[in-house]
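In response to reviewer comment 3 from the previous cycle, which asked for concrete evidence that the modeling workflow produces usable outputs, we include below a single protein chain processed end to end. The sequence was submitted unchanged, and the resulting structure tokens are shown without manual editing.
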Amino acid sequence: MLALIAVVVSLTWLGFFVDASRLGRSVPGVVFILSGGALLSNLGITPFSSPVSDFIAEYVVAAAIPLLMIKAELKKVFLESGRVMIGFAAACVGIVAGVLVGYFLLAPWHVGAQVAGFYAGAFIGGTISMIAVGNAVQMTPAEIAAATGASMIPSVLGLMALVALPNLKIVQRLLPCRLSGNGGEGPACIPPAAVVEELHLTHVTGALALSFGICAFARLIEHLAGEFLGHDQSHYNILYVTALTVLVANVFPRQLRKLRGEFDLGMIFMYMFLAMIGLGTNMTSFLNNAVSLFIYVIILLGIGIVITLILCKLLRLDLSEAVTGCGAAIVGPAATVAVVAGKGWYSMVTPAVMTGIFCHIVGNFVGIGLAVMLGR
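The workflow returned the following structure tokens.
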């Protein structure tokens, strides 16, 4: 047990180490966590399943959700994201359309409802929703690892497409850009360099207490809802946790803005879960499913981007608004900030970040909802 915990924490450290290094600019730490864990388990050094893995899957993932989303103040998100939120909504429609088309085309190749929901959550809500949805729809560690691994290369291609879109003549004609090279607001809009904040134990322990308290209360609501509705609600635990977290975040926004260190804790928990996924990966199963999943992601991203651009045109969005909203959904806020800053659209930086916060909320509900709808 202790040795396996040491392995999980070591893989978590490896992921953060790679992310902080020069290598992390081209290959994310997630890849090293998953591949390192898979190597250890497939060589027989660690088991594919264990009580440690069960504990992480049941409790650690749920606790990470409040830590990562406790500052999702909806009023602030909508005020600061502006029309970019419309672009994000268009991207959500495009991704769902791509997920459904890919699902019906590839259903004979064992692409099931769980995978469809998993990818909907992943490409709308990012890693946070990807992990939450995969766990909620009861995908096995091997299935999650296969789906995650198969999406790596298409995700990079999606990022490259996002970078290339503003330079394509056909896109420029479809969606004219009103912003100049400096975003219309000059270099002052460039976000300041990240500041390393002092760690306060009262903040860390308070965040943990709040997170597990939300999870416990969500479990109680889930149980009461199950008795009232007449069927088990345990599969939807993540949705109850998400809804309760958003409620708390918007009832006590002033107090929660002062909290520091909670997001870092949440990322540690998520990386621990990814380490568990890597350790539970059976490479034989992975290789059997990787090709069809790879094709699935290519289909859903291609259809998703095309539909998003068409909807943005119909909604009369600016090119910068469309790219920012689409990027926040498909590649996440961090990569989108890099893209818009590289184009000189500095006024789009804050909307990209704020929309990225909202996408985690939407990703959980859309992913699980699609999995349930298609699984009936």
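The first helix runs from residue 2 to 20. We consider this sufficient to address the reviewer's concern, and the full set will be provided in the supplementary archive.
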